[in-house]
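User: Can you help me understand a structure? I only have the sequence.
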Amino acid sequence: MEDHFEDALEMVEIGSGAQRALDDVRLSR
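Assistant: Let's start by predicting it. Here is the structure, written out as C-alpha cells:
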C-alpha cells in the first residue's frame, strides 16, 4: 500500500513537471 502511494506521488510530480514544460514551450513561441 505504501509503495503504491509513493509511486502515485512520483507520477503526480512527473505529470505536473511535464505540464509545466509544455506551458513553457507554449509561452516561448
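Now, to help you interpret it: The two ends are 43 Å apart (CA to CA). The chain has a mean pLDDT of 83. Let me know which part you'd like to focus on.
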